[in-house]
Amino acid sequence: MTRVTTSLVPTVRPRRAKSGLRRLGQVLTPVWLPLLLIAVWWFATANSTSPFFPPLGDILVDTWNQWVVFGAWTNAVVSVRNLLIGYVFGTLIGIIGGSLLWRLRYLRVAMNPIIYFLYVLPAPALLPAMIAIFGIGDMRQIALIALGSIWPTLLNTLDGMRGVDTVKFDTAKALRLGGWRTYFRLVLPGAGPQIAAGLRASLTVGIVLMVVSEMVAANSGIGFFILQAQAEFAIKKMWTGILVLALIGTVLNYLFVFVERRALRWYYRSRALGSS
Amino acid sequence: MRRNPHAWLNWALPLITVVAVLAFWQAITVGGIVSPAQFPTMSDTMGALAGEVASGRVWPAIGATLIGWLIGMVITIVLGLIIGTALAFNGFAQRSAAPVIEIFKAIPAIAILPLVILVAGSTLPMKVFLVCFAAFWPFLIQVIYGVRSMDPIVLDTARALGIRGARRFLAISIPSSSPYLVTGMRIASAQALILCIVAEIVGGAAGIGRNILLAQNSGVVAYPTMYAYIIVAGILGVALTGAFFLLEKRVMHWHESQRNIRASNVVGAA
Amino acid sequence: MSIATAVPTATETVLAVDGLRKIYDEGTDHANMAIDTVSFEVDKGEFVCIVGPSGAGKTTLLRCISGLASPSAGTVAFEGRPLSGVPEQLGLVFQDYSRSLYPWFTNGDNVALPLSARGMPRAERAARVAETLEAVGLGHVAKKYPWELSGGMQQRVAIARALSYRPELLLMDEPFASVDAQTRFDLEDLILKVRRELGITVVLVTHDIDEAIYLGDRIVVLSKNPSVVREIVEVQFGSERSQVETRSSPEFLELRNHLLSLVMPKDV
């Protein structure tokens, strides 16, 4: 059972740019379409009279005003902080839980349906329950994010550990590594790539929950900012919130990929070289 | 006769655990360790669930959620297959589109929910649009991966036989990349369900999510109903995602047996 | 035949296998007896090769005498004591180096792994790693990763890892089966050299009869599954062997014919 998600990062191609023109092409190819789309957006809305789609130029100016000058950036700080705390907490539980389930076969068999149920349960459905328990405030945000972050990481950790090659376990026995050493030097690194995939899925879930929780019975955060603006019919302000949220989502994802590529350098380099 | 005398544990253990968890729930709520103001008893919740089913109120809610999921999935899959296959066959187009896809995938669909509500109201089209916005990108990525991982010999054979265009697409490309496609559908399905619930809780569209929120707003007395609908959401998740997990297993099994002629260089379904 | 006890003999017995039997899925209706009865002894400093037709349970035998698997009947004694788990003084080299070496560690870290498990301090570890890699002819690869090396070099790293803690006995499971013929000769000579320099005892499982004759002091010939020991053949070449001369000598050919007749699937 695979629960891994992939990202569309181009594979490493050991091709040498034959000429400056080729190299220029390589640089421009991933860039022209996004630039084109932004340009289209800009010009399509430049003289817009629609209340819902103000000119892109105005939005950008307002983003600066709202978020830098007027201090709306505090919302971003609150949101990201809650996200990080909830995410770290949830994924840690996920890794530990996954490890326990891997180690204790009977526990795994026993908990299987419950864990599966909690994994496929759409996490936002829990928001009202969290409101009932925690009321308004950061604690609720963090709890919901943590709760939702657990399952993708837990299941991928379990799967990853179960997928580690038996020959490596024989080696560990042959080298007499012992329980803890085997865990930290074999099982954890061996399951690393799949754990990373789980962590990535957990991040996506966490971001969704962060925003959802800020849009219902909340008083701070980016989601709150966007909804508030919508309620005030301050459309440009709302758009600035959307932009900032999109930016944060993108940055977090790229940060994740960056850290992952470095932590799992051995994995990506060995795949690029063609060995398993 | 299997050597394993403990095979009965495989179904007994989970069953006992579920019963134990439910009993534990009942114990700590009835026993007052957890305040009923925050968490209803298990018996009350199950009673509420039974009540919703018996009174028939649960079905319109499930229906409203499911219709949004279904329409969104259909649009996502059709668009994803067409665009994904087209991109996969053209390296330049794929490399150009890759950053755009990654960026859109990173934007949480809920970010644009307030905007979409302004434009479309708390309606089904609003829900469907959000579902598509969330589910399309991960599905597209899987389609591209799947089509690209196709055995080149299969493609050459198709070309040699003169199979082109829509026929090649339907009869060759789709079955060959089916493991990735089904995985993609499962991921899309999960995203779709999440966005349906989100659209209902935050956006007020009809469905299970709205019922959950309404119950919570109605105060402590309706908490059992709230948890009942959360359980319904979970059951829906089990049904939908579970169906795709089973389909995935089936397809991968079929695919493995078709591909044992030559070792694939694809590192498993993503 | 009695098991070697702690009574020291003139040549010390490192490994004593007595009446070993291994049955998979015992007690079910698809039970499979891989090994029927296998007994032999390995003295200190000896190089013993185990050969047999394919399916003869050679790998099963190796797993049982290494402590990775437990036999259904019979005993295995290492340095006079019955096995419980993998003994500390044992080194193991698997056939599939790419699956055995840990790709997230450098070659140096792979070799150091058993040393840190045995509590060797860091400075000493580094020295020992360098020394061992040097001994297998790979002095410069410590900072690289296994998958950056060729197959033959990876197997050398695996051998270095097994030798780093100076085991008494080295067990090798078809270690050269996954490399090309030329590399195989290099590795065979390497293992002879290492054995000479370190004075270790080696038990090597192989399907390659020529290799068994070239390397071994004695050859244990297994029958087809369920395996018994068909014969234990003595090899008279002594410790000085060369790929070219030894392999073309008349004694080599004689042994080869004899072993082929034992191993080839005609009957039994």
Radius of gyration of chain C: 19 Å
CATH architecture annotation of the largest domain in chain C: 3-Layer(aba) Sandwich
The rough form of chain B would be described as globular
- Main beta sheet of chain B: none
Q: What's the CATH topology name of chain B?
A: MetI-like fold
Give the beta-strand count of chain B: 0
CATH classification class of the largest domain in chain C: Alpha Beta
Strand order of the largest sheet of chain C: 5-4-1-2-10-9-3-8-7-6
Rg result of chain B: 23 Å
Task: Characterise the protein shown here.
The complex is a heterotrimer of chains A (276), B (270) and C (268). Chain A has a single domain, classed as MetI-like (MetI-like fold, Orthogonal Bundle), CATH 1.10.3720. In chain A, 77% of the residues lie in helices and 0% in strands. Chain A is flat and about 75 Å long. The two termini of chain A are 20 Å apart. The N terminus of chain A is likely disordered. Chain C has 268 residues and is α/β, with parallel strands linked by helices. The two termini of chain C are 25 Å apart. In chain C, helix 3 crosses helix 4 and helix 3 runs parallel beside helix 5. Chain C is built from nine helices and ten strands. Chains in contact: A-B, A-C, B-C. Chains A and B meet through helix 1, helix 4, helix 5, helix 8 and helix 9 of A and helix 1, helix 4, helix 5, helix 6 and helix 9 of B.
Which helices and strands appear, and what pairs or packs with what?
The complex is a heterotrimer of chains A (about 280), B (about 270) and C (about 270).
Chain A: H1 20-45, H2 56-69, H3 73-103, H4 105-120, H5 127-134, H6 138-162, H7 166-174, H8 179-215, H9 222-231, H10 235-263, H11 265-272
Helix pairs in contact in A: 2-10, 3-4, 3-6, 3-8, 3-9, 5-6, 6-8, 8-9, 8-10, 9-10
Chain B: H1 9-30, H2 42-54, H3 58-89, H4 91-106, H5 113-120, H6 124-148, H7 152-160, H8 165-176, H9 178-201, H10 208-217, H11 223-258
Chain C: E1 13-24, E2 32-43, E3 47-51, H1 58-66, E4 73-78, E5 81-82, E6 90-93, H2 97-100, H3 107-117, H4 122-135, H5 151-163, E7 169-173, H6 181-198, E8 201-205, H7 209-215, E9 218-222, E10 227-234, H8 243-248, H9 250-263
Parallel strand pairs in C: 2-10, 3-8, 3-9, 6-7, 7-8
Antiparallel strand pairs in C: 1-2, 1-4, 4-5, 9-10
Helix pairs in contact in C: 3-4, 3-5, 4-5, 7-9
